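Provenance

Sequences were taken from public entries as deposited. Structures were produced by running a predictor on each sequence independently, with no templates supplied. The record for GH25 family lysozyme from Corynebacterium pygosceleis is shown for reference.
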Amino acid sequence: MDFLTHDRATVRATHNRAVLIPVTALITALALIATLLGAPRAAAFSITSPQGVDVASWQHPQGAAINWREVSAAGHRFAFVKATEGIGYLNPFFVADSKQARNAGMLIGSYHMARPDSSATAQAAEYAAALATQPQPSLPPVLDIEYAEGLGPAQLSSWVREFVTEIERLTGRKPIIYTYRYFWRENMANTAEFSDYPLWLAAYENQPPSDIPGGWNHMTFWQRADNGVVPGIVTVSDVNLFNGGEQQLNDFSAGIDVNLGQVLTAGIDLDAIGGQIAELEALGSSNRELVGAILAVAAGALAIGALVAVAQSQGIDLGPATEIVNRVRDLIASGDLPVPDLEAMLRSGDYTIGDLLILLKNAQHFAEQIG
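Predicted structure for GH25 family lysozyme:
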């Protein structure tokens, strides 16, 4: 997903602890690095399900247009377009992308990027106003919740409750909740309060995740990667799958209840319907070795260059491994490496490399917008 502006004091208070790594965490990290083994590459993931993209201003570098007819021709059935973020931001491409994707024969949706440090009611109102400009019919509204911004689990739950209640009142539609595992488990205390809302889960891996947080027993949408190569889009793009068939997707968009109730199942090769995805086998693996290495680099116990070898040992190719290293280097240099979150991941051992990449990407976007 895409992020806009952030409060400097909040992010500094959250992330400016990059070198304060407990000795126990560092010992664990170094022990994990010492036991690294190479991981074989796996075949491309395949699945039977309508696929689609989600886009924001990031997919329009220097104002470049998206060719939605090419996106549709590549097999993408739906498109979520970022509408709003926080208070006072409307994606300048929202209306054009929505209309063009619709004209290309795609189902369209939207999402609001939550900024829980300001009023949920006000944010819902601005999002609802934006939705009034989107062609209909559309997929249900989406709350994208990925940042705590200094709020604890009880406060965040209250914020989400206020937002989803208000957006449903304003639009008459039950919203979808977009999140990822680490955020929901750690920042939302894995609450099951919202499990009757449709879930859109970001989980970068080659098999449908079965360890779904928050009391949900299935995903409605699965964001399977953020580096899809999609014809018609000049940048890489988030790519997604709907947990059901074509008719179920149409029914869901029309507001008809659909009974999904299971995780996605294997089927046709994704390469056959467009959007090649790299590293999915590696991204579904445990992230403990890579997290340990990043913490060791942050503490000065491991050279940054060694991180490339550690990432490659986990099955990540040189190009993506180098991107990870560059992101970590930039976050350390700016004081925005999310050390407390990395330590929590290391202690847990339950998160994937894909979860780690979402965390690092979010931290970098957060830092870039306040710089």
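The first strand starts at residue 51 and ends at 55.
The two ends are 19 Å apart (CA to CA).
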